[in-house]
Amino acid sequence: MRLALAQFNPIVGDIAGNTQKILSLAHQAMAAGADVLVTPELALTGYSPEDLLLRDHFYRACAEAMDELLELDGITLVIGHPVKLGNERFNAATVLRDGNRLGQYHKMLLPNDEVFDECRYFTPGAAPLVFEQNGLKIGVLICEDAWSIEPAAEAADAGAELIVTLNASPFHRNKIETRHEVVRYRVEETGVPIAYVNLTGGQDELVFDGASFAVNKAGEVVAQAAAYDDELLIVEVVDGDIQPAKKATLPGPVESVYRALTVGVRDYIGKNGFPGALLGLSGGIDSALTLAVAVDALGADNVHAVMMPSRYTADISVDDSRDMVQRLDVKYDEIAIWPMYESFMSALAPSFAGLPVDTTEENLQARIRGTLLMALSNKTGKLVLTTGNKSEMTTGYCTLYGDMAGGFAVLKDVAKTLVVQLCEWRNEQAEIIPTRIITRPPSAELRPDQKDQDSLPPYDVLDAIMARYVEGNMSAEEIITDGFAEADVRRVVRLLKINEYKRRQAPVGPRITHRGFGKDWRYPITNRFS
Hints:
With 530 residues, the chain is an alpha/beta fold.
């Protein structure tokens, strides 16, 4: 029996377009001699439709699309889609063959943590589904079902000799290795080989990395699709076991993050119909990495970089920015902000009389830059990419309506120390980022001789504290016990708490850890818990 795993990139809500993609993949699978085509979870609608799942006419559109797929002859289809039965909604997989519905499986385990809130929409299923193809009994699971023993065990008890699992599993660091490990556990427990198919592409803050695979009875990964690219992975099942097939080389940990960022930018811009991207280039490492990602995602012709120097901008910042845009051949403008800043200060002088200089004057510079970028965005239609990183978002080292102004925050989930690693990795492919940008001490350049570490702990310390508190849910006391200075820990935790209101107003950005500042971070702004 020949099985085709349809790893592809749907668009949420484009039911007609996704249906045509599935039909095209089905024809490719038939041409390759496949007997069964398995799509990812909710392939018909894209993942996740969120509150579209509360609309009755959404299900009617899905039902019409399923009727169209039912007309295809010559191959068995296992289609991921939502379905409404009476007053209940299910995350479903339906098996279609030659005009017949052979059965429908309802996802049993509904994740309700991290970025997932399926309990808001779906009722859990209660029964396994096993269908027969070429004398082989095939069980069906959907995503979370494979992360616990019970659904796989029930499929095996119902006679499954092969299990296929439909997935919309978003990327975060080390996720591919974790999936392999989880599926090996299920194979070991049930004695049944498993084929795993996953989505690709970006959807708002989520990135789906594909990397579909198959594990034989011995627990070996014997077939591996590429990460991030669409692919039809064909595997053979002989004598009840999956045979060795193509095994793509997977990206390393830093490359994987870089590619996730690139896919996130590409699909957010492309799927939402923006003609390109626009960003402020400062001569610093964060904007340099953002520019590199944007060019790799969209092509140089679709990216516009703008340098907006002030009297505090170092000459080398301007020189390095010019150097980088020449290397990448992107559209580039320079707009000096100091005359505008002086006009603002003149207008505000009566109101500021007698008050000391503080961060207000620094923030005003950032807000002038944000205003200029948004004006260019309005005029050209290009989306502004913000350049702040996760370390800055944690501590509030960012300006509302200034450097936070924009439509997509490329580095929102990327710690400063990882920013450096990503720049170094990208330069190993081709040196597009001037070395001095990577090695210079970070500075916002909003006052004379300013350095980030004037007001923040060193980034290796800050990022380690952030990882423990934000991503590891450790308390301040536990982090101090780990050997960090109490003053640094208390400071970072305090800054995190008082800047929640800023993060709530930040644009979405690609999630590359299991705990980003998006749907998986839901803290009250008004909060006195210490």
